[in-house]
Specification:
Blueprint (H helix, E strand, L loop, with lengths): L7 E4 L9 H10 L5 E6 L11 H10 L5 E6 L7 H7 L3 E5 L6 H10 L3 E6 L17 E5 L15 H10 L4 E5 L7 H7 L3 E4 L1 H4 L4 H18 L1
Length: about 220
């Protein structure tokens, strides 16, 4: 039986109050988030610096059951596979650009007990995934340059999402960057089903309504495509 895709909304906590991370994260989950998108930056692959596995482990100790995705914007993703697995990460998403052997990293992530996500910067073509997509659970198409929250959504990236959906009908495809109520229709129509939204959810007076709107829009597109 073919896998049935559904909308999953994963707020990025990049713009949340990191001093209240467990409270903020629980609030997002209580407002309908399907998973938490944790942005890990090393100050090298991207110019920004966020947090690492010790913080993720602390968050896991507070929030036992939520699905955690770490978006590893790091130059050496292999280095952090075991620490993140130990911290309780469910989906380990790493960028293909700095990696020489993507298939090997995919296998190591799987062996560590996590699901595998591969991420593409805006300048990376979608067809690079052909060689290792069978080893991945999800492909992330960045709709901004990775590194900072609050950037403008790049609608031109939807061509990559459409190409991936056309070639891999049951693949989980995630978009991240500038996604909110004004840009969700483009993402949904292109075929994305995993939606990362930071500023639009965190900065809203009614995050539950924003999350429900994003989810309904994607599910509606999935049911008609």
């Amino acid at each position: 039986m073919a896998k049935k895709l559904s909308a999953k909304i994963g707020p990025s906590i990049l713009n949340a109050d990191l001093s209240e991370l467990s409270v903020e994260s629980q609030r997002l989950l209580d407002n309908g988030a399907d998973y938490l998108h944790l942005d890990v930056m090393d100050g090298h692959f991207v110019p920004n610096l966020t947090f690492g596995h010790p913080l993720v482990k602390c968050l896991r100790n507070k929030i036992k059951d939520a699905f955690f995705e770490t978006h590893m914007m790091v130059s050496n993703p292999e280095q952090w596979i075991e620490p993140m697995a130990d911290a309780g990460v469910d989906l380990y998403t790493f960028h293909v650009e700095p990696v020489e052997n993507v298939s090997s990293v995919c296998r190591k992530v799987r062996e560590a007990g996590m699901k595998v996500g591969v991420a593409l910067k805006p300048g990376t073509p979608a067809d690079v995934v052909v060689n290792y997509v069978d080893l991945a659970d999800m492909v992330l198409v960045m709709t901004v340059e990775p590194g900072f929250g609050g950037q403008k959504f790049m609608e031109s990236m939807m061509k990559k999402v459409s190409w991936l959906r056309q070639h891999y009908p049951t693949l989980d495809i995630e978009v991240d960057g500038g996604v909110g109520p004004s840009t969700i229709h483009a993402c949904a129509e292109a075929g994305a089903n995993m939606i990362v939204s930071g500023t639009a959810v965190i900065g809203s007076d009614n995050p539950a309504q924003v999350i429900a709107n994003l989810k309904d829009t994607v599910n509606s597109a999935l049911s008609t495509n």
